[in-house]
Amino acid sequence: MPTDFHQKSLSLLSEQLSARGLDTNFLIQKIASFQIAVPSWALGAGGTRFGRFLIGGEPRNLEEKLEDIGLLAKLTKRTDAVSLHIPWDIPQDVQLIKQKAADLHIRFDAMNSNTFQDYGQPLTYKMGSLSNADSDIRKQAVEHNLLVIEVGKELGSKGLTVWLADGSNFPGQAHIRKALQWTTESLQDIYAGLPADWKLLLEYKPYEPNFYHTVIPDWGTSALICRHLGEQAKVLVDLGHHLPNTNIEQIVATLMHQNMLAGFHFNDSKYGDDDLSTGSIKPYQLFLIFCELTNGAEEKAQSWESISWMIDASHNTKDPLEDLIQALESISQAYAKSLLVDRKKLNQCQLEGDVVGAQEVLQDAFLTDVRSLVREARIQSGGELDPLDYYRRERIREKRILQRGKNTQASGL
Ligand code: LRH
Ligand code: MN
């Protein structure tokens, strides 16, 4: 993209925005300061039970994963953090990893525990972990989470994300109330080990890998448990963890109303937990979610700083780094558009019952092309004018294949 094209489109947009009483520089600062964490488990080709097609040059260890995230940070200036998954990315040498991350200006966002797979631990999680009828297995799962907190403390993380696959595939298989009780008691033991300045992010999911019941299937169950645990426990919203046509922006508004929103796992989906690129399927929903977020923060329902922003995606057919560049861009665009909503006019429409007017206000913001704004925020932060074009022009994937090999496979899903 020729730079002068960028300048022309930015000055045109600035004119439009100032006509609406909006300060372009203020918006650019807001966008530039909005950083999204990248998951350590999404830097290789993801797979499904039907197969996994390697991309070539996948990171072979945590150091190389940090290099990939460092590259994303350098090109996009939209990410400054990694969210690690344990044991997939347990540091072999904590000091070395801390130094590597510091050199790449990457901090450690929430840590993720894993009690949904067997990876050599003494007791299997086949029939569940924190909800397992066997108290020894529950104890093992609690200890794993306490270990993840210890690793996170050394790295400077301030959060523990707990997602449980726990549930059942058939009616009668599980005692639903006891499973919920054991899960709550196990989470209390984990919560007791949480440093005072940490957050416990409790992630819900309606189904998969269990297909009859899941112990924490929805925001309500997660919120009930969090309320029971204490103020440091809040609800993590993974956009893919909702049954079709769920009004996710209403869930976000409700959680902010209760100051119980922990944060996000951004992705998109058409059917189930598809983990597709954020904003690639339902960009209007993403915009509406950010409208609730920016308005909720403006009206002090919950502070913006208390919310964690993370991507959680899986790349079956795209180059992971290209996918993450696109996702970071579409999240920033949705945020930028939400800042353009004429709140005063919208509130007026809501008070007057002007349904048509209200939609016009939202669509006006959503249909505004904010790409030059997001580009300018990136350039002013030292990023690339067009990261995707730069990534391809510099043949970065080809170079990684030469350096790392064609058949390397990153740890993760
Ligand atoms: C579960 C989930 C969870 C992670 C896993 C990689 O579907 O969203 O956040 O632990 O993906
Ligand atoms: Mn998730």
Could you list some keywords that capture this structure?
alpha/beta; 413 residues; binds manganese (II) ion; 13 strands
How would you characterize the overall build of this protein?
The protein has 413 residues and is α/β, with parallel strands linked by helices. 46% of the residues lie in helices and 10% in strands. It has 15 helices and 13 strands. The protein has helices spanning 3-19, 24-32, 62-76, 94-103, 135-155, 176-191, 219-229, 248-257, 283-298, 320-338, 343-352, 355-366, 371-380, 387-393, 396-404, and strands spanning 38-39, 47-48, 51-52, 81-83, 107-108, 111-112, 159-163, 167-168, 199-203, 213-214, 233-238, 261-266, 308-311. The protein has a six-stranded parallel sheet with strand order 6-7-9-11-12-13, with helices on one face. A three-stranded parallel sheet has the order 1-4-5. The chain has a two-stranded antiparallel sheet with strand order 2-3. Helix 8 (248-257) runs parallel beside helix 9 (283-298) and helix 9 packs across helix 10 (320-338). The radius of gyration is 22 Å and the shape is globular. The relative contact order is 0.16. The structure holds 6-deoxy-beta-L-fructofuranose (LRH) and manganese (II) ion. Manganese (II) ion binds at residues 163, 203, 238, 265, 312. Manganese (II) ion binds next to loops.
